[in-house]
Design goal:
With 103 residues, the protein is α+β, with helices and mostly antiparallel strands. It is 33% helix and 23% strand. It is built from 2 helices and 4 strands, in the order αββαββ. Strand 3 and strand 4 form a beta hairpin.
């Protein structure tokens, strides 16, 4: 039996569930932030270091607004706790996009 790394476990077992969760949240306007630390020793298919690999999802509420605390938390996650500006693009159900600067 082959031992799977965290990325493979996410892809095979968690991602299909996330597709369901994301659809339910979108359907009911539930804002959410999910973050998975799936880093592992070794390299990815294109040779990149996978030790700090993450999979994050941020969804807005029924009004297309991201919860402020979710935005701040995601900014810290992506910056590994460091202070630096970041841009977030939100795609709304009507096809429009909102660009948010997190400073």
């Amino acid at each position: 039996m082959e031992v799977m790394n965290k990325e493979q476990v996410y892809d095979e077992k968690i991602s299909p569930l996330m597709v369901q969760i994301i659809e339910i949240c979108k359907e009911h306007g539930i804002a959410m932030l999910m973050d998975f630390a799936i880093g592992h020793d070794g390299e990815g298919p294109d040779g990149q270091d996978c030790s700090d690999l993450r999979c994050s999802t941020l969804l807005p509420d029924e009004n297309g607004e991201n919860a402020v605390m979710h935005q701040k938390a995601l900014a810290l996650i992506r910056r590994r706790g460091r202070h630096a500006p970041m841009m977030i693009t939100t795609e709304h159900g009507d096809g429009t996009k909102t660009l948010t600067a997190v400073i």
